[in-house]
Amino acid sequence: MTADCIVIGSGIIGSFSALALHERGLQVAVADRGGLAPGTSRSSDGNLLCSDKSVGPMLELSRRSLDLWERFATHYGNRCEYDPKGSTVVARGQEQAAALAEHVTTHREAGIDCEFVDSDWHRLEPHLGPDTTAVGHWPADAQVQPMLACYQIARTLKDGGVPYRFYEEITALEPDGDGVTVAFSGGERWRAGHVVLATGVWSNELLAPLNLEIPVRPRKGHICVLERGDVTVNSKIADFGYNATTEDTSGDESTVQTAAIIEATRSGTILCGSSREFAGFDRGVNTDTLRRIMADCIGIVPDLARLRVMRAYAGLRPFSLDGLPIVGPVDVGGRVIVATGHEGAGHGLAPVTAELVAACVADGDSHPYGGVLHPGRFRT
Predict the structure, then answer these.
(1) Cα–Cα dist 263/52, whole Å
(2) What phi and psi values does residue 41 have, to the nearest 5 degrees?
């Protein structure tokens, strides 16, 4: 089999990358040893947020990507529970309220639609607790069901003739001056002009035989799923402290960070997160961490205490050293392109990442964000 580009990884980043390449008229093929969306996209809550980003590259990328998510749902139909429900960030105490007000101001100056509300916040979220001092509201923030998005894209691409290869290990990548050969454990060999590794925390497994490495490591996170009940959650509710955990790049091995983020699903359940810790590739659920998460969430929305936890799961976010995605070619010939390092923002940034990947493959350039996101920034 020959193609213009082979995308390895069928999670949200790989799915959107394959779609963007297909939209450019390129011949694309997709491979994933674990089936469709088997990794991080299967273990997350689908945040599409500007509210948790400081002004800078991540906010610019998020704003662009939110526009592209809307385009996707409009153009291809919404079979992935895409919901621009907005987000509500909660401050407790005057010190947090002042910091949140400044955060809202910087976003408004950057052209982001948001407001600071220091009274009557129950019109936004009726179940916020008595400790609430003020909230910030971002009406354009959204939510998606990540697995459904990957399934929707896969159906679209399969209908367009894009081949998928699942449940088979890739034993070698063999780049040369004209392209890359991908060898599968079953003996088949695919050939393409470029290969895109949208393989998240597992990217270095494929790069190691090429004597290549990128600074990505797994950062574990937990989510609790609460039963349906009479607690209304209109938007994505987050403790203002959640922003600090998402942008923390300290790489501290010894601590588990938790901060409340609460959202309702289309089925009526409520998702409660989140945690961040470095635990290697362990995806086991830790009950102590779940207790901390629920304590955080009940502190923001006390009525959650009367709902039962139905289940919980954990996943691995691809953490990069500087907190920015790593997107671009890693080999000398520019034939092997990586797209990872998004940490907890992968679902929000998937469409804009796909734009960048398509530019690297089709145009041979590094995209307007290339200098900031290019893997070469880590070379000494």
Answers:
(1) 15
(2) -65, -20
State how far Cα 223 lies from the chain centre: 14
Domains 2-48+146-215+322-378 and 87-139+217-320 belong to one CATH topology: no
> Which one-letter amino acid corresponds to residue 57?
P
The pTM of the full predicted model, rounded to 2 decimals, is: 0.96
Strand, helix or coil for residue 58: helix
Record: fold of 87-139+217-320: D-Amino Acid Oxidase; Chain A, domain 2 (3.30.9)
Q: What angle do the packed helices 146-159 and 12-23 form, to 10 degrees? A: 30
Domain boundaries along the sequence of the chain: 2-48+146-215+322-378, 87-139+217-320
Q: Between helices 346-358 and 12-23, what is the axis angle to 10°?
A: 30
pLDDT at 155 over 90: yes
The DSSP letter of residue 89 is E
- Is 360 within 8 Å of 333 (Cβ atoms)? no
Residue 258 has which token pair?
């938790």
Condensed to tens digits (0 to 9), the pLDDT of residues 203-256 reads: 999 999 999 999 999 999 999 999 999 999 999 999 998 777 767 777 666 789
Helices of type H across the chain: 12-23, 57-76, 94-109, 146-159, 203-207, 241-246, 287-300, 346-358, 370-373
Q: What end-to-end distance do the CA atoms of the chain give, in Å?
A: 38
Q: Cβ atoms within 10 A of the Cβ of 252, count?
A: 12
d(CA 200, CA 33): 13
Percent composition of the chain: helix, strand, coil (DSSP 3-state, to 5): 35, 30, 35
Q: How far is CA 241 from CA 40, 237, 275, 377, in A?
A: 23, 12, 12, 29
Burial of residue 281 (number of CB atoms within 10 Å: 0-12, 13-18, 19+) = exposed
Give the gyration radius of the chain's Cα atoms.
21
Least trusted range by pLDDT, from 38-52, 287-301, 307-321: 38-52
Q: What is the CATH number of domain 2-48+146-215+322-378?
A: 3.50.50.60
